[in-house]
């Protein structure tokens, strides 16, 4: 439904039909694959980010990371995490589009994550699980880089602010 231009009336009709036929839980299609994508993504992201940041600081001979170090570490860590978790993003998209297919051809039943993965591989090969890698990396790498650079800058700013405040109080 996200890829189609639906009016609010059409969107309401789709949602109403789904809820009437399958209950309120039908609105959470794709939740399982989303969790399977986001939890490993976060673990991979933070682990790689800290490793890259530490290595670049060591190579540069500095204790605190620069904006360039945090930006490049965030982009690299986000790219790795996005690539490794892309199959679950592809499955999530397939799972969510089942809602539209179910409404259009009300004979289909919902597929499990593993059934969808097997279907994708049988129809498109293993590479089918990595459909959309370029758009995903184009979105994720800069988003992660900007997010972590902003986070690290804010952390550094407030650490200095608190340090100065503590020095004035002593």
Question: Would you mind describing this structure in some detail?
Answer:
The protein has five helices and no strands. It has helices at 8-22, 31-60, 67-104, 113-124, 133-169. The protein is mainly alpha-helical. It starts with 7 loop residues before the first helix and ends with a helix. It has one domain (28-165): Mitochondrial carrier domain (Mitochondrial carrier fold, Alpha/alpha barrel), CATH 1.50.40. The longest helix has 38 residues, at 67-104.
CATH class: Mainly Alpha
Main β-sheet description: none
Low-confidence stretches: none
Strand content: under 5%
CATH fold call: Mitochondrial carrier fold
The total tally of domains equals 1
Annotation field: number of helices: 5
Return Rg in Å: 22 Å
**From the coordinates shown, what is the CATH architecture?**
Alpha/alpha barrel
The coarse overall form would be elongated
Helix content: over 70%
Number of strands: 0
